[in-house]
Design goal:
With 129 residues, the protein is an alpha/beta fold. The protein has 2 helices and 7 strands. Strands 1, 2, 3, 4, 5, 6 and 7 form a 7-stranded mixed sheet that branches. The radius of gyration is 15 Å and the shape is globular.
């Protein structure tokens, strides 16, 4: 995944149902923070709360007929938030999308979740500093 914008170029950066497919999600998460002048919204993430972050193989041909399969991260909520806040963002809101899934071998059901972060270049009232 290549980010084609300069650091802090966009007021709002949105990543929806995509971070979980990045091989190096930690690097991409940090780059998303740096690309956002004020806000970063990451949506439709599969999260677990007790298990560490893990990888699953998605086989959409079983449910929707796609003739492919691919790897997907299932994020530990605390690990994901720590990575993003460690890159200079502050968690403002959490959204539950209701896309819950049980994965083979997992001890818990993942929750579809989104987060709105304020980046370090935004003041408390939402305007850039």
């Amino acid at each position: 995944m290549t980010l084609l914008v300069s650091p802090a170029a966009m007021t709002l950066v949105v990543a929806s149902s995509s971070l979980q497919y990045a091989a190096d999600w930690r690097d991409i998460a940090g780059r998303l923070v740096k690309s956002a002048k004020q806000w970063l919204f990451i949506a439709r993430l599969p999260l677990v709360r007790r298990s560490p972050t893990f990888v699953v193989v998605q086989r959409p041909y079983l449910s929707v007929g796609y003739q492919t399969e691919y790897l997907s991260w299932i994020f530990n909520r605390d690990e994901l938030i720590a990575r993003i806040t460690g890159s200079g963002a502050t968690l403002e809101r959490e959204f539950i999308s209701g896309e819950n899934m049980q994965y083979a071998g997992s001890q818990e059901i993942s929750e579809g979740t989104g987060f709105l972060f304020r980046t370090s270049t935004a003041s408390a009232n939402g305007s850039a500093t």
